[in-house]
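Exercise: predict the fold of this chain.
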Amino acid sequence: MAKDNPAPKTKSPGKSRLHEHLVTLASSIGERPTGTAMNREAARYISTTLAGLGYAVELQEFPIGEWTPAGVRLSGSGRDYSAAANPYSPACAVTAPLVTAGSMAELEQADFCGCILLLHGDLTKDWIMPRNFRFYRHEQHCRIVQLIEEKGAAGLITVSPRADQPVPVIIDGDFPVPSCTVTAPAGLALREIAGSPVTLEIDAKTRPAHAANVIGRNWNHTGKQAIVLCAHFDTKYYTKGALDNAAGVAALLELARILSENTVPADLEFVFFNGEECYSAPGECAYLDAGYLDPARILLGINIDGAGLWGSPASISYYGCPDALVAATEQARKQFPAIVPVDPWPAGDHMIFFMHQVPCMAFSTKADPAVIDAVIHSWNDTLAGLDETVLADTVRLVENIVRNRADTGMNTR
């Protein structure tokens, strides 16, 4: 009877190394929006780690505005209201009557020229997409922004659907109206003083700056196609970004260590995108504009974004992958009960691969949307909410996928 071939010996994911990366990114560095000093510090940490592992490192720079908030004050009828300046808001000091709108019909009909406008209800139940976002246009959101500008609002207050934190509703460097966000309870209180004068003061500035994607390459197999593994390392403002996405970056750095000898028959490219959380997705645009996303060059793309939430399994989803690859991956996945398949989700860095006919996979977390929304993009997204064991399992499965795809799928779709 023939013996089974022994499994190849591989380097095991080091939980301590994962933990070290997580602590550095989500605690020592913390909040790291694109273009900020902490964002550049994160880029230096990633590039130094990759270089130490023997990778050729490219810092793919692009221009971006560095927005620095210094404070916000919102008051009316003898009361102060807690608020957060919406990222990229210009500075202001405005006192004007308060006008409210909670639906498109109300917004279309309202006269708020020279007033401070309070958006609530259906208009702020979701984050308002930036008008000039390259990859997707939300017509209703564009109309909201157009009406606010054309009707001449002197200032804008958006009401977050959250009660605990004023998570910004508008993040758009092309939006010229000074704006802030308040919690749902504060929004209710403000609606009671509609028609009265309110004062909005925002102290903030934006200056020209730069940021960069960090790309590590180990091209020991010239002429072979590349497997591209990616994760974004930036955060939104007002969050330390442990789950979103220090976890993905830590996993990718650990994979870079495990695969540093590049014994697989494919070139490897580790792309740490910068700007996935930014209004203009500048990192994705820079990668595309450089011509790097060539379906003839890339065999497979793998994105890790938001994997490792405590109390929830990690997830895997497939985009344009050959049936044989999906079957082999699902067979390997059975070794990891904490990773489950989910339907495709059309957001994140993996989508630029899928849009360019490159087979790709995405790893994240399977949980009720309310559970995830309570964590990401807020101060709740800390190391305490991560399960490093699930993250280590994600690393093991991705390593298996890379080796399997390189061994069996070269130059095939």
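Check your answer against the key: The CA atoms of residues 253 and 301 lie 16 Å apart.
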